[in-house]
């Protein structure tokens, strides 16, 4: 359906079938918002490697920083010898982290950083339980998968999972058929009910939340909900962890997505993805006295805080500041949502359009269903996602039911590129659902 044929170089057939491929595209090279395939076609990339290439593909500043660092030292191993890029990154990250979260630990991937945050919360509180929110995606390692409720495909078949994980509802107003206030009230009431019925608050180490659900459906958490979590965390001595792996680093039009809730400061922030424009590096940040509960030697890792990745991270932060990319994410995000809402009005199969900054979710439903809450239509989402490829636009689906298309453009996306992306999305919708 995509109409593209990857060039028959190398051997794709022996890659694990456990990898579910979203597109047949094989990249030759990429720049900014564009991927150029070995098929000779150019694709507008609204996937950014799942929200990673924040400064666009191969930003010259990031490329130069990485190349220069490669000539100095590639792998320094930060518990053996410290290196300059990591010290510099730590200083620069400190400038964008909320006041008080001044201690940083580095790893390689989002999953590892999620695990580090859970280890820290348990070590600091001596409590076993973690509360997660339905639809959250926190990674694929066994512990991170145990915390993930964005789809059973992420955890089915390899139980037993890590124990002590309990799920509370996420205020998914559209699915419940509620207005936002009712959804928040419902979700907080259910959280309190969980605390009363199954998970004693003083047995609870942490609440772990994505301020904008990512793989679970691209849903911003209403500020009143996050404020309610903060209040309960304070009341019960529970550590509030914000998983900013996908929504952080400028993507939502604020540097951190939890900052849409005025005055909210989590106890631990987890970041990865956009941090180094594509180089693998992740981090958790926490107050020094909290991080000090991780005794020397309890944290580490061979590759964590890699020198080339750290140099790319320093360059990424410089580009975000100098090119005003957080503001660009806000403005282009407004353009994207407004454009999508206009398009959605033409297609009854689109039940909901939502998002924050450059994270937009388009939820497909069966418009003929008569039930009180929406009936998911994953087939339409899949067909539209495939038709987009034929139009020269790369997108991804998400949500436990697979009926949401997510758009994740680079923070450098221009007004023209956004207009082009929206027109291509509209054309794909018309070709499949028109
Ligand atoms: N948390 C969130 C919010 C994520 O979106 C992801 C990745 N999609 C992860 C954690 C896991 O990150 P990684 O794939 O780098 O392990």
Automatic annotation (TrEMBL):
It comes from the Bacteria. Pfam families: Aminotran_3. The keyword Heme does not apply. InterPro entries: Aminotrans_3, Aminotrans_3_PPA_site, Class-III_PLP-dep_AT, PyrdxlP-dep_Trfase, PyrdxlP-dep_Trfase_major, PyrdxlP-dep_Trfase_small. Residues 1-14 have a biased composition (Low complexity). Keywords: Aminotransferase, Pyridoxal phosphate, Transferase. Coiled coil: none annotated. SUPFAM superfamilies: PLP-dependent transferases (SSF53383). One of its GO terms (molecular function) is transaminase activity. Its cofactor is pyridoxal 5'-phosphate. PROSITE patterns: AA_TRANSFER_CLASS_3. Belongs to the class-III pyridoxal-phosphate-dependent aminotransferase family. This is Aspartate aminotransferase family protein. The gene is gabT.
